[in-house]
Amino acid sequence: MTLGIIIQARMGSTRLPGKVLRDIAGKPLLAHVLGRLQMLKRPAKIVVATSSAGENDIVEAWCLEHGVSCFRGDEADVLDRYFQCARSLWMSDIVRLTADNPFTDIEELERLIALHQKHGFDYTHAFGQLPIGVGAEIFTFEALSRSHRDGKLPHHREHVNEYFTDRPELFKIGQLDIPPAKVAPNLRLTVDTEEDWRRACALAAQAGGTWLGTEEAIRLCSSSA
């Protein structure tokens, strides 16, 4: 198994333009995403997948400056961007992350990958129970290839996972069970709006330079509600 982690990132967010390089507690959002992956125990090829649009030159430049692999592909066809990236780097299984999620739960990501490997799933996810922006998903290159070949609808091309969820009968799909203390599906720990960004800044500041765990983030958000 050649594990790859592809982080999709672009500057052209509609609701929060430039968010992937926006500052949170002294460093860009993208740096937070990459920093958490340093805690991952298993080896993986980590790459930022941005688009070929000129506004994303700055994303590539930041990656080059910080020694991070960067792949550039189609702006609108994100499914093709993932497929071309995974194929070029010979990835057999791909974790999909996005550059607007600075609080990915690495402990649950480790469990997700292990579950995916143990049961030979085509697609495995940790969504629906964790706070929004904390979970992840993983799929085989074969499943990605099938989605790339057969997923023709616009939303299949824009969202990498939606051919899996639209056609579950074609894939062996797994879902990670989440510990009760981490269940908070209505809590937003993603960064998609100004309010999200302010919340992320406050949480990062309270963490004081350490990596904030999911249970602690839930507690802090509950106490400030």
**Quick one: biggest sheet?**
7 strands, mixed
| N-end to C-end Cα span | 43 Å
The share of residues in extended strands comes to 15-25%
CATH class annotation: Alpha Beta
Identify the strand order in the major beta sheet.
5-4-1-6-8-7-9
**Uncertain regions: pLDDT < 50 for 5+ in a row?**
none
Series of secondary-structure elements, N-terminal to C-terminal: EEEHEHEHEHEEHHHEHH
Total number of helices: 9
Described by the principal axes of the CA atoms, the overall outline is globular
The helix/strand class is alpha/beta
The CATH homologous superfamily is called Spore Coat Polysaccharide Biosynthesis Protein SpsA, Chain A
CATH architecture: Alpha-Beta Complex
* Count of separate structural domains: 1
Total strands: the figure is 9
Question: What is the fold named in CATH at topology level?
Answer: Spore Coat Polysaccharide Biosynthesis Protein SpsA, Chain A
- Level of helix content? 25-40%
Rg value: 17 Å
- Average pLDDT, all residues: 95
How would you explain this protein's 3D organization?
This protein has 225 residues and is α/β, with parallel strands linked by helices. It has helices spanning 29-37, 57-65, 78-88, 106-119, 141-150, 154-158, 162-166, 194-207, 214-224, and strands at 3-8, 23-24, 27-28, 45-51, 69-73, 93-98, 123-125, 137-140, 173-175. The longest helix is centred in the middle third of the chain and has 14 residues, at 106-119.
